[in-house]
Each structure stands twice: as C-alpha cells, then as structure tokens.
Amino acid sequence: MNAEIDITNVIITTERLVLRPWRTSDLDDFFEYASVDGVGQMAGWAPHKDKEESLAILKRFVDGKKTFAIEYRGKVIGSLGVKKYNEALFPEYAERRCREIGFVLSKEYWGQGITPEAVREVLRWLFEEKDLDAVFCGHFVWNSQSARVQEKCGFREIGRGKFETRYGTVEDTVERIITKEEWAARQIK
C-alpha cells in the first residue's frame, strides 16, 4: 500500500547536499536545468519552454509535499520525488508500506555521484524515519545512467513495463525495488 508521505519541514543533509522542500524562490534554478534538452526526457517530460511552465510545475512540487529539491552549494540542481507507486502492478505488496522514488539532475552535474548520494539518504529517511517496507524505482530501458544509480543504491529488477511520456512516446521500462531488509543488509557492509 502507498504509505502517507509529507516532506513539509523535512531537511535532509549529506556531505555535499541539502534535500529540502521546494520554494517558489527556486524558480530560476529549476528553469535553468529543466529547460536543457536531454534532462527531462530521461524522466519522461520535455524541456520546459518558459519560466511560466516551470512555475506551474514548481507550485505542484510545493503543494504536493512529496518532492525534494536537491541543493548543492546553495543552488538547486535537481529533484527527488517520493510518489505513489502503481499498486495494481505489485499486488504482492498490498499489505506492506511502500512508495516509489524518481529523480532528475541538472546535466551540468551528471557523473559526480550526486544522485546516488541523494537517493541513499532519502532511502535512509524512508526506511528509518517513515518505516517503509519497500521502495520502488523505475527507468527507461535505454536510460543507463538511472539504471546505474539504482544499482549502486541496491535496487533490484522486479519487472518490465511500459510508460507513456508527457511528450507522447511509449517507452519500455525496468521496474526495480529495494526492501527495508535489503537496505539494512547493505548498511552493515
């Protein structure tokens, strides 16, 4: 089942990052990376055309209370959402507290280990503080970068599917999961 999640007033820090709720004052940073070709397509959305489009989405982040801004050196460079997973696809988890995460990072910061750092800390928060039993995460088959982040963070493949993007394509996906027990075993190493 989808556990209730509200990130209002939640601030998570890592060695390099601050993960926090979005603010409307983040608009310029958000538009800067969301308007770059190749960023949004990794997650199924087209580059933002203007700041008005970014502002509308930013307001959904703020109101939804489930998407972290990834801040690095005082600048927002990405997002990490804790969204509802598709319960119909995974009925075997109906009695367990679960959620799905998704992430996007500014192209300028790819390849620096920032996303795995953010994902690991949000997983810690979800398992230790929100007491989730499992977290799902998916990626398009061709998105090797997201696949690598998920593998580094301990997600294992649980299935394949299809996803209709916001720009009208249908993409083959890999669905992954990490359970609380799997996550805890990785912490001992």
Give a written overview of the molecule:
- The protein has 189 residues and is of the alpha+beta class.
- It has a domain at 12-133: 3-Layer(aba) Sandwich (Aminopeptidase).
- The chain has five helices and eight strands.
- It has an eight-stranded mixed sheet with strand order 1-2-3-4-5-6-8-7, sandwiched between helices.
- Strand 7 and strand 8 (170-179) form a beta hairpin.
Please sum up the structure shown.
By secondary structure, this protein is of the alpha+beta class. It has five helices and eight strands; from the N terminus they run ββααβββαβαββα.
Low-confidence stretches: none
Radius of gyration: 16 Å
Query: What is the residue-mean pLDDT, rounded to a whole number?
Result: 95
Proper CATH architecture of the domain at 12-133 = 3-Layer(aba) Sandwich
Name of the CATH homologous superfamily of the domain at 12-133 = Gcn5-related N-acetyltransferase (GNAT)
The CATH topology of the domain at 12-133 turns out to be: Aminopeptidase
Q: How many strands, which pairing sense, and closed or not: the largest β-sheet?
A: 8 strands, mixed
**What percent of the residues sit in helical stretches (DSSP H or I)?**
25-40%
Look at the helices and sheets and give the structural class. alpha+beta
Order of helices and strands: EEHHEEEHEHEEH
Total count of helical runs of at least 4 residues: 5
**β content, as a range?**
25-35%
Shape by Cα distribution: globular
Q: State the separation between the terminal residues, measured CA to CA.
A: 30 Å
Report the oligomer: single chain
| Widest sheet: strand ordering | 1-2-3-4-5-6-8-7
The CATH class of the domain at 12-133 is Alpha Beta
The count of strands amounts to 8
